[in-house]
Amino acid sequence: MIVGFLLTLVAAYLVGSIPTGYLVARAKGVDLRAHGSGNIGATNAFRVLGKGPGIFVLLMDAFKGAAAVNWVPLLTAGWVSGNAATYLPLVAGIGAILGHNYTCWLRFKGGKGIATSAGVMGALLPWALVIALSTWFLVLVISRYMSIASIMAAVALPIGTYFTTSNRALWVLAGVLGGMAIWRHRGNIQRLRAGTEPRFEFRSKRSDTATSS
Known about the structure:
Shape: globular
Number of domains: 2
Order of helices and strands: HHHHHHHHHH
Distance between the termini: 36 Å
Number of strands: 0
Radius of gyration: 17 Å
Largest sheet: none
Strand content: under 5%
């Protein structure tokens, strides 16, 4: 049984570790790590590469999370018996996000996991995701800080999960994902406190401005 969970974790990690933003930028002759925030996530891709590539990276990063949750457990279920198999999608979700945040292909330096977490929660608990995304959008419109919007969405995720399901395992997962996302934004929090965090511009443009992703 333990082997089944480990296989799920590793397989999902490899799915999540595909560095979409880095690959898209490289295809355009750009090293995303050397521009903007240096992050390979969707927000930095949007600012450095433009609207189209940024949206593509966003969707693919989310797809990685959803694909890991939906498909990896189908491959590893035979290694786990009984009710324990119901936890495989949760393990796969955590693995995919770890893969995105700490991709083995880029010396374990990846994105901040917001889009991939959204894909995971969309597959597991879509109504909680709706609450988190609504919070993200409202905070972004009001504050124009992508980092604040992402952090508040990370806070709203476990709250939304609590009110939309009685599954305590999902409560724990949502809390872990939210905590991971906030931890990955600790640099943004420092810049916010220092007053140096840039605001998000609601238009596509190439920029080297540091931001959240």
